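Here's what a typical entry looks like (MFP1 attachment factor 1):
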Amino acid sequence: MAEANELNPQVPHETKAPKPNFSFSIWPPSQRIRDAAILRLAQTLSSSSSSIIANSKRYASLTADEASAAACVIEEQALLAAADTAAADDVGGRIEKLGVYAKEISKRALEMLKARAAQVTAEELSPVKPESS
């Protein structure tokens, strides 16, 4: 049997794979993610073909300006609600907070549409005062 030497090693050297040099954080969402959520929400609220509005005759779409302002407020409120969630500060807890954030955005958008529809209905049903001559 041949002896192990530098030119003919019998035991291969173990090489360790380098660890990746990046990190990934799911919570809190980056400003880029928040801006994308606001933009998408504004598009949804201002589009009559969005699933929320198209599937119900109760809700009307908003103007682009109204939708943009509402989306900013809704996203901020959802972020604060999710941040207040008592979740662990591990990966599972951060994923839970992200889920709360997404659900809060949806819930608050629907609540806003319902409140707006109720306001429009109330205005339509309010009696018109006869003009005095």
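The chain has a mean pLDDT of 83.

More examples are in the samples folder.
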